[in-house]
Amino acid sequence: MDIIIEKDTIAYKPYYKNRIWNMLFVNGGVLVSLVTLGMAYSGKWNNNLQTIFVIGILILLIGLYRILFLDEITLIFDVKNQYIFKKYPLRQPVATMRFDEVYSIITEQENGYFYYCITRKGNIFRKNLRISTDFKENKMKSDRVEFEEQLLPAIVKILGI
Fold first, then answer.
1. pLDDT tens per residue across span 49-67
2. How far apart are CA 84 and CA 98, in angstroms?
């Protein structure tokens, strides 16, 4: 997790740890595409190879999209402006929530994993702001400990919860 904690801001990339898996996506897509192209040049091009080639290209594109855009999402807690910003690559930061809208930090579970998110005051039907990556109870302990001991107390302090 790429964390920057300063006096009046906290900035980090919650999805950065998935970068290794996304690199495997890209490498797998390249490998499958090159193998099928090699077979095509040897004269064995048929509908099955075309399908495998398209699947390889799709895997490659999904991996590239995740590396270039999803892994680079940055959450910024700005005390000076009293806002939580979400910065996407190639775009200006987007204000997602004011500090006075924050109600609490909770954990939510999904498919055997849990993650931390910030709830809003007032409107219970709004989507919560996810502030961590997925954690499994026993796995990825170092990432979870890093988040819970370094980042979570700093976020709680800055938000005044």
1. 888 888 888 888 888 888 8
2. 6
